[in-house]
Recover the amino acids of this structure.
């Protein structure tokens, strides 16, 4: 299919963009708020959205239901920190019961996991991603500006006790900040039967000094290979991660490299912000506003469905992050878009 081809005719239950990519994965941010202020993600003083500008939990459910009706089979709940959203379990229990949604997963900073692990498991969350950039309390406090790593580690234990398997740690790589700990994070993952993904820092949001800490996945992989005999894996999540195995363990080590590798040609996902903006691509500023559609047609499903189908018309072929990170090319913070 050429890049200028019109949107394909839609069968009732599939989403296909104009480049022929089938969209099966939705990342839904249910809040822009967070109990941490990670330096790479938020400014120290953040102004959060007024409640009226954020999707209600009912609206989140309507959006998810519409997407599942269009063939989405995987949904990731994210934020902000999803577990600080009031009554979050009301939504998750309903999402867990949606027929056709095979793979309901959640990304969290782990701060509330001790309390939520068992109810999340019972509601049908299949797998957790927990962000963990360091195991050291002082460093954790300095990166998150407020967080307590011991609480997060207890949350990871609680997830295991609740029956979650292969929980994945996400670590943002930062030169001079946590790059001496990458091997320790892999060792921690291996010891606790977890997976771990290292994420290249992305130029989202206007955060001073960001350019100085970038490390590529390839550099980290080479450094890890000095301690672990990593074996390349053919597994793919259909996303920007590449995986390696640590022999003798179940642990997979992933590298999420929006800069180093072009993963756009197999992109299967779209994102929705807490404000109901549907972003067909993380790296572009074009979005479709779903909130007015939801609120103008509170009792009708078809206008929402048409808005979603129409949004694929603006899904670009690829994104354009640059290695030069001085100027933010995308002005949203990650907490707005949902990582
Ligand atoms: N609060 C939850 C958490 O921290 O896991 C979910 C939302 S957070 C925005 C999702 C992921 O985005 C986290 O793993 C975080 O480390 C990552 N992230 C945030 N800002 C980033 C940036 N500028 N570059 C790369 N990853 C980023
Ligand atoms: Fe909060 Fe997650 Fe952003 Fe950290 S990365 S500030 S935990 S939303």
């Amino acid at each position: 299919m050429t890049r200028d081809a019109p949107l394909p005719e839609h069968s009732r239950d599939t989403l296909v963009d104009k480049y022929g990519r089938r969209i099966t994965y939705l990342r839904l941010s249910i809040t822009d708020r967070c109990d941490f202020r990670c330096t790479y993600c938020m400014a120290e003083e953040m102004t959060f959205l007024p409640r009226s500008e954020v999707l209600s939990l009912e609206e989140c459910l309507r959006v998810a239901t519409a997407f599942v009706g269009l063939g989405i089979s995987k949904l990731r709940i994210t934020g902000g920190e999803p577990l600080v959203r009031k009554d979050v379990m009301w939504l998750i229990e309903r999402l867990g019961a949606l027929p056709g949604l095979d793979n309901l997963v959640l990304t969290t900073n782990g701060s509330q996991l001790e309390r939520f692990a068992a109810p999340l498991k019972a509601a049908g969350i299949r797998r957790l991603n927990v962000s963990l950039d360091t195991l050291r309390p002082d460093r954790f406090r300095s990166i998150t500006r407020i967080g307590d790593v011991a609480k997060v580690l207890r949350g990871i234990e609680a997830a295991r006790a609740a029956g979650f398997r292969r929980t994945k740690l996400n670590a943002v790589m930062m030169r001079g900040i946590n790059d001496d700990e990458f091997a320790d994070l892999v060792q921690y993952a291996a010891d606790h039967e977890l997976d771990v993904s290292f994420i290249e820092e992305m130029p989202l949001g206007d955060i001073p000094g960001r350019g100085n800490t970038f490390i590529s996945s390839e550099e980290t992989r080479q450094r890890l290979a000095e301690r672990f005999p990593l074996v390349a894996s053919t597994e793919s999540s259909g996303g920007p991660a590449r995986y390696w195995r640590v022999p003798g363990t179940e642990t997979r080590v992933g590298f999420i490299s929006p800069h180093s590798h072009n993963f756009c040609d197999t992109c299967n996902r779209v994102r929705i912000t807490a404000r109901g903006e549907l972003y067909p691509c993380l790296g572009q500023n074009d979005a479709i506003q779903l909130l007015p559609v939801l609120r103008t047609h509170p009792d009708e499903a078809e206008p929402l469905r048409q808005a979603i189908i129409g949004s694929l018309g603006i899904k670009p072929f690829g994104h354009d992050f640059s290695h030069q990170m001085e100027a933010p090319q995308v002005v949203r913070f990650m907490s707005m878009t949902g990582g």
Remarks:
- The pocket of S-adenosylmethionine (ligand 1) is lined by residues 34, 40-41, 78-79, 81, 107-109, 131, 170, 172, 199, 201-202, 204, 334-335, 339 (CB under 6 Å).
- The first strand starts at residue 25 and ends at 29.
- The domain at 25-337 is CATH 3.20.20.70 (TIM Barrel).
- The longest helix spans residues 57-69.
